[in-house]
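for the writeup, i need someone to sanity check this before i put it in the appendix. the sequnce is what the collaborator sent (i think, or maybe the updated version? ugh). structure was predicted straight from it, no edits. if anything looks off just tell me and ill rerun, i have time this weekend
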Amino acid sequence: MKPHYQFALLVIGAFVLSNIPIVHWPFSWLETYFHEISHGLAAVLSGGSIERIVLHFNGSGLCYTRGGWQPLVTFAGYAGAVAWGAIIYLSAKASGTNNRWPAIIMLGMLLVSGILYARDLITILIMLIISGTLYISFRHVVGGIFPRFMEFAGVYVMVSAAQAPLDLIDGRHYGDGATLANVTWLPEIIWALLWCSIAVGTLLLLWNQSRQYQPK
């Protein structure tokens, strides 16, 4: 199958899975984790610090930070999740069948951030489930299936990050979009559409790249 058809199937599969109750949880937790850690990293990069990360079973989460530049910290959540999804996808595609290093690095990142910033039992349990799923995958999934699994995980994170900002347009004026609206005076819907556009644009760029890809 041509690479761009494979990529399209990954996107369709991620969209379908994201709408199946319960089954999508491990992948949705992964997207939430990258969303929250992106808030934290933006705080650190702009002079602040991470206090703790909270993940919930329903796929929501929070990152408590101290200091940093608030607009950047808030913006980084959805945008950062897209970037992490693209990194996971591209790393898996470039790593080859037997290279587990991208997965090992991601597992290390989960474990370190869990030790440093997870303070409640639910968050710890979710991080352990994500880490355990990843560990079992790279230990026991062989051949070309494992990189496809990692590619799917990256695409799922991007697809989820494309859909999630639409939930902000609910009239409650709550969440990252509302926070940015308060500090920039740009309406919440502008930020939601911008985040969606970043995610969709990234997916289109990767799809176009896959069209030009020539297998060795």
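Residues 44-212 form one domain. The chain has a mean pLDDT of 90.
thx in advance!!
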